[in-house]
Amino acid sequence: MNKDKVYIETYGCQMNFSDTEIVASLLKAGGFDIIDKIDDADIILLNTCSVRDNAEKKIHQRLMHLKQYKKRKNKLVVGVIGCMAERMQEKLIEEEDIVKIVVGPDEYRLIPQLINQAIGGQKGIAVELSTVETYDDITPLRTEGISAFISIMRGCNNFCTYCIVPYTRGRDRSREIATIINEVKDLAQQGIKEITLLGQNVNSYTANHKGQNIDFPELIARFAEVAPEIRFRFTTSHPKDISDKLIETIAANDNICNHIHLAMQSGSTRVLEMMKRKYTYEHFLGRIQKIKELIPDCALSTDIIAGFPGETIDDHKQTLQAVRDIRYDGAFMFKYSPREGTKSYDMEDDVDEKEKLRRLNQIIEMQNNIALELNDAEIGKTQEVLVEGSSKRSRDDMMGRTGTNKVVVFPNNPPCKIGDLVKVKIIRTTSATLIGKRI
Ligand code: SAH
Ligand code: SF4
Ligand code: F3S
Fold it and tell me: Same domain, yes or no, for 15 and 111?
C-alpha cells in the first residue's frame, strides 16, 4: 500500500523544532512517510508560534498560499499544530476553511488518528493541555547532522504578564532523568557531537531520582560526565533561577558551552515589576556579574522588549544603559505585542507604534555596534570550533561554531570534516562572522 506523505513546516522557537521531531516520529509509527518536498505532500502540517502577532500573521498568509496546493490536489489535508493551534482552537477551523485539523502541543499522540479521520472527510480538533505529558517514551525522528535537541521539560509556570506561552504550553513539568540519560547515551553512540537541552525554563528542571531530588545543575553535570565527547548547550534559563551552583557547574565542565542566554526584557525595575518578571534589574545585573566573574570568556545573549505598556522614556533609557553596561554578544529584540488572554492585554498599550519602533531601533543599533566590537575583540585569539559543514559562500571554506556560539569560517586546509573539533585562529571579522585559519 502507498503510504500517505506528510510534510511538516516549523515556525517559532527551538521547542517547536524539537516537537516537530516528536510528531514526525509518532507519524512514522502511525504508518505515514515524512517527506521534505512540499509538492509531493498528501498532508501539510504547520507547527506554529503565537508569541507575537507577527508570528500568527505569517501563518495566516502561509495558509492563504497553501490554497494553490489544495487546488492541485483535492484530497490534500492541511493541519495546524503547536502554539497557535492551542491559542485559537476551533476559531482556526472557522476562520480558515483550508484547515482540517488543529492540534495543541500536549495532544500530539492523537495526530495520526486525526489525520486518518481528516482523510475520511472529518475535521478534528485536540487542544487539551496536560500536566504530565512529556513524550518521554518517544524517540524523536531527528534530521541528520552533528547536533541534536533534547527537550527536558515542557511548559511554564511564570505567567509574565505579556506572555502567551503558559497558555499555549500549559504547566511546567520535567522529564524523568533515566529516559534523558538514555537519550544522551544513544546520541553519543550515533556520533552526535553537540546536544542542546531545551525547555521554556530549563533551569527550573527538577525530578526525583531514586528518592533524591535532582536539579538542573546536577542533571547537566551528569551529562557532561556520561558523554565527555559531546558539547552541551541549554536554553532558555530564567534569570530568577540562574543559581551560583549552575554557574559553577558550567565553569567546572569543559564540555558545557560558555554561552548563557538570559532574557533581561528591560533595564528598568519598574517595568520588570509590571511584567511580573520576579527580579529587579539589580538582581539581574548581579547574576551577570557573577557569570563574568566565574566564567570570564562566557558569551551572553538576551531578549529585550521595547514599548511595554507604561514604559516611559526614562525606563527606555535604563534599558539602553543596561545594554551599554552589560555588553551582550547577541540579543533578540522585539516590539511589545499585546496578546489576548494575557494580563498585560488589559493594560493600556500606550506607547504608540512609531515610538515603539523608534525605541526598538535605538536598542538594535546600540546592540549591533557592541556585538561588532565584541567580534573584533576576537581577532588574534584561537578558538575551538565544531565543524558544521562547508561555508555558504565558498566550498573551499568550512564553517563551524565556537563554544560561545559564534560562527567561524576558515579555509579547509588542512582538510577537516563535519563533526571535527578544530583550532582556528581568528584573523578578521565581517558583520556577523569570524574569519580565521587552522592552526
Ligand atoms: N521562556 C523564555 C522566553 C520565551 S518567549 C524566557 O523567559 O526566557 C521568547 C521571547 O519573546 C521572550 O523572552 C520575550 O522577549 C519575547 N516575547 C514574549 N511575549 C512577547 C510579547 N507579547 N511581545 C513582544 N515580545 C514578546
Ligand atoms: Fe513567557 Fe515568562 Fe514563561 Fe518565558 S518565563 S515562557 S517569558 S511566561
Ligand atoms: Fe512561539 Fe510557542 Fe515557542 S508561542 S516561542 S512556539 S513556545
Answer: yes
